[in-house]
Structures are given as C-alpha cells and as structure tokens.
Specification:
mainly alpha; globular; about 60 residues; 3 helices
Amino acid sequence: MGKINQARYTLEFKLEAVRLIGAGQIIAATTAILSLPDQTLHNWLKAHREGDWVGRVPSR
C-alpha cells in the first residue's frame, strides 16, 4: 500500500475558514466554497476553540 495523499492548508487558510463560521457563515456553505470535507472544518473549529493551534508550524 502507498501513502495516502493528504491535503495541506496554511494556518492563514484555516483561520479564515474559522473566521467565516464566526461571522455567521453556515458550515455546509463554507466547506462547499472552500472545497473542504465537513469533518476537516469541524476539526479546525474544535482546535480553535481549544486553543490547540498555539505554537504549531503552519502546513505548507
């Protein structure tokens, strides 16, 4: 088996997606616009709420 390709997103992209939700955008609409899986955005929202992004190196 080979390695599964995993999409990489910058920290700025992730924060913008979270900001859209905070501004009232619906999750389904945000994921469609940004071409993201729903679960990915949910993971980012959870990480943001828990402050889990502090000190992380952004993905490239």
